[in-house]
Amino acid sequence: MKKITTFLMLVMVTALFAQEEESKKKFDFTGSVDAYYRANFTAPNDENSIAPGSSFANLPGFALGMANVVASYEGEKVGFVADLVFGPRGTDAIFASPMYSASGNIVNQLYAYWNVSESVTLTMGNFNTFLGYEVISPVANFNYSTSYLFSYGPFSHTGLKADIALSEDFSLMLGVFNDTDLTEFNPTGDYAFGAQLGYAGQYLNFLLDPSFTEIDFTGGFDLSDDFFLGINAAHLSVEDDGGTFTGVALYPQLATSEAFSIGLRGEYFAETEFFGAIGASDADGDSSVFALTLTGSLAIDNLTIKPEIRLDSASEEAFWDNDLAASKSLGSFVLAAIYSF
Fold this sequence. Notes:
The chain has one domain: Porin (Beta Barrel). It is built from 3 helices and 18 strands. It has helices at 2-23, 88-94, 148-152; strands at 26-40, 61-74, 78-86, 107-115, 120-128, 156-165, 170-178, 191-199, 202-208, 212-222, 227-238, 244-255, 260-272, 287-300, 303-314, 319-320, 326-327, 329-340. The termini are far apart. Keywords: Signal. Pfam families: BBP2.
Protein backbone atom coordinates (compact mmCIF):
# COMPACT_ATOMS: atom_id res chain seq x y z
CA MET A 1 0.00 0.00 0.00
CA LYS A 2 2.85 2.38 0.83
CA LYS A 3 4.39 1.73 -2.59
CA ILE A 4 1.07 2.34 -4.33
CA THR A 5 0.49 5.56 -2.35
CA THR A 6 3.98 6.80 -3.14
CA PHE A 7 3.51 6.02 -6.82
CA LEU A 8 0.16 7.87 -6.95
CA MET A 9 1.64 10.90 -5.23
CA LEU A 10 4.50 10.90 -7.72
CA VAL A 11 2.03 10.79 -10.62
CA MET A 12 0.05 13.69 -9.15
CA VAL A 13 3.15 15.81 -8.59
CA THR A 14 4.35 15.11 -12.14
CA ALA A 15 0.94 16.06 -13.57
CA LEU A 16 0.81 19.28 -11.54
CA PHE A 17 4.35 20.18 -12.65
CA ALA A 18 3.42 19.54 -16.29
CA GLN A 19 0.32 21.74 -15.95
CA GLU A 20 2.41 24.51 -14.39
CA GLU A 21 4.94 24.32 -17.24
CA GLU A 22 2.11 24.34 -19.78
CA SER A 23 0.51 27.39 -18.14
CA LYS A 24 3.70 29.35 -18.76
CA LYS A 25 3.19 28.89 -22.49
CA LYS A 26 0.46 30.97 -24.05
CA PHE A 27 -0.73 31.26 -27.64
CA ASP A 28 -3.08 34.17 -28.41
CA PHE A 29 -5.09 35.16 -31.46
CA THR A 30 -6.42 38.72 -31.21
CA GLY A 31 -7.22 41.66 -33.44
CA SER A 32 -9.75 44.26 -34.48
CA VAL A 33 -11.76 45.70 -37.36
CA ASP A 34 -12.82 49.31 -37.75
CA ALA A 35 -14.87 51.47 -40.11
CA TYR A 36 -16.02 55.07 -39.97
CA TYR A 37 -18.08 57.90 -41.43
CA ARG A 38 -16.44 61.29 -42.00
CA ALA A 39 -17.92 64.64 -43.04
CA ASN A 40 -16.69 68.24 -43.12
CA PHE A 41 -18.61 71.10 -41.57
CA THR A 42 -16.74 73.87 -43.36
CA ALA A 43 -15.57 72.23 -46.59
CA PRO A 44 -17.09 70.12 -49.39
CA ASN A 45 -17.89 66.42 -48.99
CA ASP A 46 -17.58 65.40 -52.63
CA GLU A 47 -14.61 65.03 -54.97
CA ASN A 48 -13.29 68.29 -53.49
CA SER A 49 -13.29 66.92 -49.96
CA ILE A 50 -10.32 67.84 -47.80
CA ALA A 51 -9.04 66.43 -44.51
CA PRO A 52 -6.51 67.45 -41.84
CA GLY A 53 -2.90 66.78 -42.74
CA SER A 54 -2.59 64.03 -40.12
CA SER A 55 -2.78 60.30 -40.87
CA PHE A 56 -5.86 58.03 -41.02
CA ALA A 57 -9.59 58.84 -40.83
CA ASN A 58 -9.19 61.16 -43.82
CA LEU A 59 -11.53 59.62 -46.41
CA PRO A 60 -15.00 61.16 -47.09
CA GLY A 61 -18.32 59.47 -46.39
CA PHE A 62 -18.48 55.90 -45.16
CA ALA A 63 -14.96 54.49 -45.26
CA LEU A 64 -12.90 51.53 -44.15
CA GLY A 65 -10.18 51.51 -41.52
CA MET A 66 -8.43 48.16 -41.34
CA ALA A 67 -8.66 44.56 -40.25
CA ASN A 68 -5.90 43.74 -37.76
CA VAL A 69 -5.02 40.11 -36.97
CA VAL A 70 -2.37 39.37 -34.34
CA ALA A 71 -0.99 35.91 -33.57
CA SER A 72 1.39 35.71 -30.63
CA TYR A 73 3.14 33.08 -28.53
CA GLU A 74 4.51 33.72 -25.05
CA GLY A 75 6.78 31.09 -23.56
CA GLU A 76 8.78 31.18 -20.38
CA LYS A 77 11.88 32.42 -22.22
CA VAL A 78 10.95 33.10 -25.84
CA GLY A 79 8.03 34.23 -27.94
CA PHE A 80 6.90 35.94 -31.13
CA VAL A 81 4.32 38.37 -32.52
CA ALA A 82 2.92 38.29 -36.07
CA ASP A 83 0.73 41.38 -36.58
CA LEU A 84 -1.00 41.62 -39.98
CA VAL A 85 -3.12 44.49 -41.33
CA PHE A 86 -5.51 44.75 -44.27
CA GLY A 87 -7.29 47.89 -45.50
CA PRO A 88 -6.61 51.60 -46.10
CA ARG A 89 -5.45 52.41 -42.55
CA GLY A 90 -3.07 49.45 -42.60
CA THR A 91 -1.64 50.39 -45.99
CA ASP A 92 -1.07 53.98 -44.87
CA ALA A 93 0.60 52.76 -41.69
CA ILE A 94 3.17 50.57 -43.40
CA PHE A 95 3.74 52.70 -46.51
CA ALA A 96 2.78 49.80 -48.81
CA SER A 97 6.19 48.24 -48.16
CA PRO A 98 7.66 48.64 -51.63
CA MET A 99 9.95 45.64 -52.12
CA TYR A 100 7.65 42.69 -51.58
CA SER A 101 4.23 44.16 -52.30
CA ALA A 102 2.54 40.77 -52.45
CA SER A 103 3.32 39.97 -48.81
CA GLY A 104 5.33 42.73 -47.15
CA ASN A 105 2.60 45.34 -47.30
CA ILE A 106 0.37 43.46 -44.85
CA VAL A 107 3.00 43.17 -42.09
CA ASN A 108 2.48 45.67 -39.30
CA GLN A 109 4.77 43.91 -36.82
CA LEU A 110 6.79 40.72 -37.08
CA TYR A 111 9.30 39.94 -34.35
CA ALA A 112 10.67 37.33 -31.99
CA TYR A 113 11.97 37.93 -28.47
CA TRP A 114 14.12 36.26 -25.83
CA ASN A 115 13.79 36.91 -22.10
CA VAL A 116 17.47 36.65 -21.32
CA SER A 117 16.77 37.22 -17.63
CA GLU A 118 14.04 38.65 -15.42
CA SER A 119 15.27 42.15 -16.25
CA VAL A 120 16.52 41.91 -19.87
CA THR A 121 14.55 41.13 -23.05
CA LEU A 122 16.02 41.10 -26.56
CA THR A 123 13.67 41.67 -29.52
CA MET A 124 14.50 41.30 -33.22
CA GLY A 125 12.31 42.05 -36.22
CA ASN A 126 9.81 44.74 -37.12
CA PHE A 127 7.93 46.49 -34.29
CA ASN A 128 5.90 49.67 -33.87
CA THR A 129 7.76 52.76 -32.73
CA PHE A 130 8.51 53.54 -29.12
CA LEU A 131 8.06 57.29 -29.71
CA GLY A 132 4.81 59.14 -29.20
CA TYR A 133 1.54 58.82 -27.31
CA GLU A 134 -0.56 57.34 -30.10
CA VAL A 135 -0.21 54.08 -32.03
CA ILE A 136 -1.36 52.59 -35.33
CA SER A 137 -4.16 50.40 -33.95
CA PRO A 138 -7.34 52.38 -33.21
CA VAL A 139 -8.07 50.05 -30.29
CA ALA A 140 -5.25 51.55 -28.22
CA ASN A 141 -6.01 55.22 -29.02
CA PHE A 142 -8.69 57.25 -27.31
CA ASN A 143 -9.18 59.60 -30.29
CA TYR A 144 -9.97 57.95 -33.60
CA SER A 145 -8.25 60.49 -35.85
CA THR A 146 -4.55 60.91 -35.11
CA SER A 147 -2.34 63.84 -34.17
CA TYR A 148 0.21 65.67 -36.30
CA LEU A 149 2.87 64.59 -33.82
CA PHE A 150 2.07 60.94 -34.41
CA SER A 151 1.61 61.31 -38.16
CA TYR A 152 5.04 62.79 -38.85
CA GLY A 153 7.13 60.79 -36.43
CA PRO A 154 8.19 57.22 -37.29
CA PHE A 155 5.56 54.49 -37.33
CA SER A 156 7.76 51.39 -37.09
CA HIS A 157 11.34 50.15 -36.86
CA THR A 158 13.09 47.02 -38.08
CA GLY A 159 16.10 45.99 -36.04
CA LEU A 160 17.29 44.75 -32.66
CA LYS A 161 16.44 46.26 -29.28
CA ALA A 162 17.16 45.48 -25.65
CA ASP A 163 14.57 46.31 -22.95
CA ILE A 164 16.17 46.52 -19.51
CA ALA A 165 14.34 46.83 -16.19
CA LEU A 166 16.77 48.89 -14.08
CA SER A 167 14.55 48.86 -11.00
CA GLU A 168 10.88 48.70 -10.07
CA ASP A 169 10.33 52.19 -11.53
CA PHE A 170 13.21 52.76 -13.98
CA SER A 171 13.54 51.13 -17.42
CA LEU A 172 15.91 51.51 -20.35
CA MET A 173 15.60 50.56 -24.02
CA LEU A 174 18.51 50.62 -26.46
CA GLY A 175 18.17 49.70 -30.12
CA VAL A 176 19.73 49.71 -33.58
CA PHE A 177 17.42 49.83 -36.62
CA ASN A 178 17.29 50.22 -40.38
CA ASP A 179 16.56 53.71 -41.66
CA THR A 180 13.07 54.66 -40.51
CA ASP A 181 10.26 53.07 -42.57
CA LEU A 182 12.67 50.69 -44.38
CA THR A 183 10.85 47.76 -42.84
CA GLU A 184 11.64 44.81 -45.11
CA PHE A 185 15.40 45.08 -45.51
CA ASN A 186 18.23 47.65 -45.54
CA PRO A 187 19.05 48.98 -49.02
CA THR A 188 21.21 51.89 -47.77
CA GLY A 189 23.72 50.32 -45.39
CA ASP A 190 22.91 53.05 -42.85
CA TYR A 191 21.44 52.48 -39.40
CA ALA A 192 19.42 54.41 -36.84
CA PHE A 193 19.94 54.32 -33.08
CA GLY A 194 17.22 54.65 -30.47
CA ALA A 195 17.00 54.95 -26.72
CA GLN A 196 14.21 55.24 -24.16
CA LEU A 197 14.48 56.05 -20.48
CA GLY A 198 11.35 55.33 -18.47
CA TYR A 199 10.35 56.24 -14.95
CA ALA A 200 7.00 55.31 -13.41
CA GLY A 201 5.06 55.56 -16.67
CA GLN A 202 6.91 58.61 -18.04
CA TYR A 203 9.21 58.11 -21.03
CA LEU A 204 11.98 60.19 -22.60
CA ASN A 205 12.68 58.92 -26.13
CA PHE A 206 15.53 59.63 -28.54
CA LEU A 207 16.02 58.55 -32.16
CA LEU A 208 19.10 59.31 -34.24
CA ASP A 209 18.26 58.42 -37.84
CA PRO A 210 20.61 59.03 -40.80
CA SER A 211 18.12 61.59 -42.15
CA PHE A 212 16.71 63.16 -38.96
CA THR A 213 16.91 63.39 -35.18
CA GLU A 214 13.88 63.27 -32.89
CA ILE A 215 13.51 63.71 -29.14
CA ASP A 216 10.14 62.89 -27.60
CA PHE A 217 8.45 62.86 -24.20
CA THR A 218 5.43 60.65 -23.60
CA GLY A 219 3.62 60.20 -20.32
CA GLY A 220 0.51 60.80 -18.30
CA PHE A 221 -0.99 61.03 -14.84
CA ASP A 222 -4.08 59.66 -13.11
CA LEU A 223 -5.42 62.85 -11.53
CA SER A 224 -8.26 60.86 -9.97
CA ASP A 225 -9.91 57.45 -10.31
CA ASP A 226 -11.90 58.71 -13.31
CA PHE A 227 -9.70 61.46 -14.76
CA PHE A 228 -6.47 60.90 -16.72
CA LEU A 229 -4.17 63.42 -18.39
CA GLY A 230 -1.89 62.20 -21.18
CA ILE A 231 1.07 64.25 -22.46
CA ASN A 232 3.17 64.14 -25.63
CA ALA A 233 5.84 66.62 -26.75
CA ALA A 234 8.42 66.20 -29.49
CA HIS A 235 10.97 67.96 -31.68
CA LEU A 236 12.24 66.57 -34.99
CA SER A 237 15.00 68.04 -37.11
CA VAL A 238 15.74 66.82 -40.64
CA GLU A 239 19.37 66.79 -41.76
CA ASP A 240 20.72 69.25 -44.38
CA ASP A 241 18.19 71.99 -43.61
CA GLY A 242 15.26 69.74 -44.44
CA GLY A 243 13.05 71.43 -41.87
CA THR A 244 11.87 70.84 -38.33
CA PHE A 245 8.70 70.32 -36.39
CA THR A 246 7.95 70.98 -32.74
CA GLY A 247 4.72 70.11 -31.02
CA VAL A 248 2.90 69.38 -27.80
CA ALA A 249 -0.40 67.60 -27.18
CA LEU A 250 -2.51 67.16 -24.03
CA TYR A 251 -5.06 64.36 -23.63
CA PRO A 252 -7.51 64.92 -20.74
CA GLN A 253 -9.91 61.96 -20.48
CA LEU A 254 -12.86 61.51 -18.13
CA ALA A 255 -14.72 58.25 -17.48
CA THR A 256 -18.34 59.18 -16.73
CA SER A 257 -19.46 55.55 -16.32
CA GLU A 258 -18.19 52.03 -16.90
CA ALA A 259 -19.37 52.21 -20.51
CA PHE A 260 -18.77 55.85 -21.53
CA SER A 261 -15.77 58.18 -21.50
CA ILE A 262 -15.08 61.54 -23.07
CA GLY A 263 -11.70 62.92 -24.02
CA LEU A 264 -10.14 65.99 -25.60
CA ARG A 265 -6.90 66.22 -27.55
CA GLY A 266 -5.46 69.72 -27.73
CA GLU A 267 -2.42 69.92 -29.99
CA TYR A 268 -0.08 72.68 -31.14
CA PHE A 269 2.23 71.77 -34.01
CA ALA A 270 4.73 74.08 -35.73
CA GLU A 271 7.07 73.47 -38.68
CA THR A 272 9.92 75.31 -40.40
CA GLU A 273 11.86 75.22 -43.68
CA PHE A 274 8.93 73.89 -45.75
CA PHE A 275 8.66 70.67 -43.74
CA GLY A 276 5.34 70.08 -45.46
CA ALA A 277 3.09 68.52 -42.81
CA ILE A 278 0.42 71.20 -42.48
CA GLY A 279 -0.13 71.84 -46.19
CA ALA A 280 0.77 75.54 -46.45
CA SER A 281 3.51 77.84 -45.17
CA ASP A 282 4.69 81.43 -45.35
CA ALA A 283 7.52 82.68 -47.57
CA ASP A 284 10.11 81.39 -45.10
CA GLY A 285 8.61 77.92 -45.02
CA ASP A 286 7.13 78.33 -41.53
CA SER A 287 3.65 77.28 -40.45
CA SER A 288 1.71 76.16 -37.40
CA VAL A 289 -1.62 74.56 -36.55
CA PHE A 290 -3.75 74.26 -33.43
CA ALA A 291 -6.13 71.30 -33.42
CA LEU A 292 -8.86 70.41 -30.93
CA THR A 293 -10.41 66.94 -31.10
CA LEU A 294 -13.34 66.03 -28.83
CA THR A 295 -14.11 62.30 -28.75
CA GLY A 296 -16.74 60.23 -26.97
CA SER A 297 -16.18 56.51 -26.38
CA LEU A 298 -19.11 54.15 -25.80
CA ALA A 299 -18.29 50.50 -25.07
CA ILE A 300 -20.89 47.85 -25.95
CA ASP A 301 -19.30 44.49 -25.16
CA ASN A 302 -16.38 44.22 -27.62
CA LEU A 303 -17.67 47.05 -29.81
CA THR A 304 -16.64 50.67 -29.24
CA ILE A 305 -18.54 53.57 -30.85
CA LYS A 306 -16.63 56.84 -31.12
CA PRO A 307 -18.27 60.10 -32.25
CA GLU A 308 -15.68 62.83 -32.78
CA ILE A 309 -15.61 66.54 -33.59
CA ARG A 310 -12.33 68.03 -34.80
CA LEU A 311 -11.36 71.68 -35.39
CA ASP A 312 -8.05 72.50 -37.11
CA SER A 313 -6.86 76.12 -37.20
CA ALA A 314 -3.66 76.88 -39.14
CA SER A 315 -1.53 80.01 -39.37
CA GLU A 316 -1.66 79.77 -43.16
CA GLU A 317 -4.38 78.92 -45.66
CA ALA A 318 -3.90 75.15 -45.56
CA PHE A 319 -7.59 74.26 -46.18
CA TRP A 320 -10.52 75.52 -48.22
CA ASP A 321 -14.15 76.29 -47.48
CA ASN A 322 -17.44 75.27 -49.10
CA ASP A 323 -16.89 77.86 -51.86
CA LEU A 324 -13.44 76.34 -52.58
CA ALA A 325 -11.77 79.49 -51.29
CA ALA A 326 -8.53 79.13 -49.33
CA SER A 327 -9.14 78.95 -45.59
CA LYS A 328 -7.09 78.74 -42.40
CA SER A 329 -9.57 76.45 -40.61
CA LEU A 330 -11.38 73.18 -41.04
CA GLY A 331 -14.18 71.63 -39.00
CA SER A 332 -15.04 67.95 -39.37
CA PHE A 333 -17.00 65.09 -37.82
CA VAL A 334 -16.14 61.38 -37.54
CA LEU A 335 -18.24 58.47 -36.31
CA ALA A 336 -16.14 55.32 -35.86
CA ALA A 337 -17.02 51.71 -35.00
CA ILE A 338 -14.20 49.52 -33.63
CA TYR A 339 -14.61 45.85 -32.80
CA SER A 340 -11.81 44.08 -30.95
CA PHE A 341 -11.41 40.40 -30.17
